[in-house]
Amino acid sequence: MNEQKKIKIAIIGAGHIAQIVHIPVWKTIGDVEVVAICDKVKAKAKWVAEKFEIDRFCSDPEELFKSDEIDAIDICTETDSHKELAVAALSAGKHVLVEKPMARTYEEARAMVDAAKKHDRHLMVALNVRFRRDAITLKSFVDGKELGDIFYMRSGWVSRRNFTKTSGHWLYQQQKSGGGVLMDLGIQMLDVATWLLGDPKLISVKAVTYNRVPNLSVEDSAVCLLQYENGAALSLEVSWTILLEKDILYVNLYGTEGTAFINPLRIYKSLSGKMVNITPTPDEGANVRYRRSYRNELRHFVACLNKNIPMQADAAEIAERLKILQALYRSAEEGREVIL
């Protein structure tokens, strides 16, 4: 694509994530124009279009796929619709950004990857945690071997939910979501940890899941251990129900020459036998960090289209994360370690 071209985006799904994050952020990016919004409830699409001053709205995604005006599709719908919508959009010659989780299964994700390759289109998964400034900064330290060799890592996200109000939501229905907290929060924390480690070869996984919410068909908490061929290990913890004073998101890295944490960012290195704080800059506030991560993510997608730079969170890469999640679910179901 021409570097000066303004990318014309259409959004499918007029729900919370589109209204709170995607549309407001797209509106701040100069190289982008949001030209259409689509939702299966046409009245909702109309309301969102009017709210955000979007010229076009519809309830049939085919209208978007057939439009020569539209360059890319941003999919913000339930997970069970991702494969069908993405494949149709890619087949119509559109680039695609799809919200996490990419799909319900590895097989669905691979079908999406194959469609992108067949039609020579970009397909990116919206995993905003790896686009946080603290994560990006920490990645540069890890890649520069400032912490030595990383041999152990802890990654987790505990975010309590009020199931008296939300238990009927599609996110908590196995058939639509593909899983529970591992699919919702676990995919983010698995992705950022694997990305920071440099995507080493995985040799085994062990998982324990908990279903402590009555009438909930998916897991509400999970504790996992992943072991890599290079000797490193990752402990992954996610929950919607653990009783804590406040929500927490964390990544802790332990290396042979230093230790690092995010949220907030802290980096320590062993120098002459002493631990020295080498954190480069003060961390951002939580709200700024959250909003900026999405802005970084969406701007990166546009840069990939306009400048053809290497894509972060490329679909082929994220499909492999789903393969790992499936192994974790298998481990929990069978009550044993799964060798990969």
What does this molecule look like?
38% of the residues lie in helices and 26% in strands. It is built from 11 helices and 15 strands. The strands form 2 sheets. Strands 14-13-12-11-7-10-9-8-15 form a 9-stranded mixed sheet.
List keywords for this structure.
single chain, 340 residues, alpha/beta, nine-stranded mixed beta sheet, six-stranded parallel beta sheet, 11 helices, 15 strands, 38% helix
The helical percent reads 25-40%
Low-confidence stretches: none
In round numbers, the mean pLDDT is 94
Radius of gyration: 20 Å
Note the main sheet.
Answer: 9 strands, mixed
Tell the overall outline.
globular
Q: What class would the helix/strand composition place it in?
A: alpha/beta
Please provide a brief summary of the model.
The protein is an alpha/beta fold and 340 residues long. It has helices spanning 16-26, 42-51, 61-65, 82-91, 106-119, 133-143, 163-166, 174-177, 181-197, 286-307, 315-334; strands spanning 7-12, 32-38, 56-58, 72-75, 95-99, 123-126, 150-158, 202-210, 221-228, 233-239, 248-255, 258-262, 266-271, 274-277, 338-339.
Outline the fold blueprint.
Layout: E1 7-12, H1 16-26, E2 32-38, H2 42-51, E3 56-58, H3 61-65, E4 72-75, H4 82-91, E5 95-99, H5 106-119, E6 123-126, H6 133-143, E7 150-158, H7 163-166, H8 174-177, H9 181-197, E8 202-210, E9 221-228, E10 233-239, E11 248-255, E12 258-262, E13 266-271, E14 274-277, H10 286-307, H11 315-334, E15 338-339
Parallel strand pairs: 1-2, 1-4, 2-3, 4-5, 5-6, 7-10
Antiparallel strand pairs: 7-11, 8-9, 8-15, 9-10, 11-12, 12-13, 13-14
